[in-house]
Write a structure and sequence with these properties.
This protein has helices at residues 17-20, 30-37, 45-48, 63-78, 111-115, 127-140, 155-164, 189-202, 212-228, 268-275, 325-334, 357-366, 381-389; strands at residues 4-5, 10-12, 82-84, 90-97, 100-110, 119-120, 142-143, 147-151, 171-174, 180-186, 206-210, 240-247, 253-254, 256-260, 279-285, 296-301, 304-310, 349-353, 372-376, 400-401, 412-413. By secondary structure, it is of the alpha+beta class. Strands 1, 4, 5, 6, 8, 9, 10, 11 and 12 form a nine-stranded mixed sheet that branches. The longest helix is centred in the middle third of the chain and has 17 residues, at 212-228.
């Protein structure tokens, strides 16, 4: 069963929370971060994108960058921008987007659970990205950005969350993207013990939804600290890392689409004829088409939209990975006809989060940058969990979760 621990959270002052809260480090580049941080000395970008306070030509993976993160955080803490709770707490982080609300339990996830497979993952990680986040944790000594976890619905946890969120929240603001952020503190000792007990007795697995690299990095640093400490007990804070845990039914996975630079030397007619081997094709003309169910695809090519429906025999219903639409597209289109076999390394393909809409796909193709675009029906939480439960790995760029968790609203110290 799973371990989720309360911890002494480090949080911004109530009057500064909105100014501190920032987008995650991996959704904007250094230039965008510099612009976003202009005129705001409180934004957490100074901690999770610390290169914005250093010369523009600096290597963002160099030692001075990580040292700057530590320096900026310690300065902000000393100046009273952040305060630390006096006793271990759980926290509830609610996000409201397009009228839909999701409630996440903020807690310390266990390094041990990651090592022994209680925390289930569905993506491969890259060593260079792991090392970057490990260095950030090693030097700053904090988990700066929370990882986004899911768990199977539990009525007892739902009841606790519902009762607590009837109170006035500690934080309540709407960010510039229109998402409302609220947070409550659970510091009642009986409630804290109850939550810990429920997860330990009733929640068998926790699933990484978003943040595989942050999860791996936090767990690996925890293992390092354990090996370096001759007096290790298992209760040290480095044995845990910052997570926000949501019940599966509240989460929405948005489509993650593909754009390709060329048709691999094929004419439009030759390409569409080849597609007919695996798909029923309907020309939708100028009418934007968004897939309405699994195994339906949208294609935009030469100013026209097409509806593609995968034929029977092009996928395996009994294979959790083989049944995915991303797998169908790769095996029936990208690999055989466009000669794109390694989605992680090919420079002929790019990926577009569905939050940007079909208009972004049309724009990329109409500009001449790309030749063809494919929109997919989003993966479900059930599919994600089935793959993780079977210890399988999803193809790259499959899940896109919105809204993203803000960084800086809650921080976990490794000491």
């Amino acid at each position: 069963m799973s371990i989720l621990k309360p911890f002494k959270g480090i949080r911004p002052r109530i009057d500064l929370a909105e100014k501190v809260a920032s987008r995650p480090y991996d959704v904007l580049n250094s230039t965008e971060a510099r612009k976003e941080a202009e005129g705001n000395p409180y934004t957490f970008l100074h901690v999770n994108k610390p290169e914005i306070d250093l010369p523009e030509d600096i290597d963002i993976h160099s030692a001075p960058v990580y040292e700057k993160a530590k320096e900026n955080f310690e300065r902000m803490f000393k100046e009273g921008v952040f305060v630390q709770d006096e006793k271990p707490c759980y926290y509830i982080y609610a996000q409201t987007m397009f009228g839909k609300i999701q409630y996440g339990l903020v807690a310390g996830a266990a390094v041990e659970d990651y090592v022994n497979g209680i925390i289930k993952k569905h993506e491969l990680t890259r060593p260079d990205k792991e090392e970057d986040r490990m260095n950030h944790v090693r030097v700053s000594n904090i988990n700066a950005g929370p990882v986004f976890f899911a768990y199977r619905d539990n009525a007892k946890i739902d009841k606790i969350v519902s009762e607590k969120t009837s109170d006035k929240p500690e934080y309540d603001f709407t960010s510039e993207d229109g998402v409302r952020h609220q947070m409550w503190i659970i510091n009642n000792e009986n409630t804290v013990k109850n939550i810990e007990h429920i997860f330990a007795e009733e929640v068998k697995y926790i699933y990484v939804a978003d943040g595989h690299h942050r999860t791996a990095a936090a767990a690996l640093v925890g293992k390092e600290r354990r090996e370096q400490n001759q007096n290790h007990t298992g209760n040290e804070e480095y044995n845990f890392f910052l997570s926000v845990n949501f019940p599966e039914s509240q989460l929405t996975i948005i489509d993650y689409n593909r754009v390709v630079k060329d048709l691999n030397g094929l004419s439009k007619n030759d390409f569409t004829e080849k597609l007919k081997e695996s798909f029923d094709i309907e020309n939708m003309g100028n009418n934007e088409y968004k897939p309405g169910k699994l195994h339906e695809f949208s294609m935009y090519l030469d100013n026209e939209w097409y509806k593609l429906t995968a034929k029977e025999g092009t996928f395996n219903e009994n294979d959790p990975v083989g049944v995915l639409d991303v797998t169908i597209l790769t095996e029936q289109v990208l690999a055989p006809h466009l000669n794109i076999k390694d989605l992680r390394r090919s420079d002929r393909i790019d990926f577009v989060g569905g939050i940007r809409g079909l208009g972004e796909l049309k724009k990329r193709v109409d500009s001449g940058e790309m030749k063809v675009a494919f929109a997919l029906y989003p993966v479900s939480m059930k599919q994600l969990m089935d793959i993780a439960d079977n210890d399988l790995i999803m193809p790259p760029k499959v899940t896109w979760f919105e809204p993203k968790l803000r960084s800086g609203l809650i921080i976990h110290s490794l000491e």
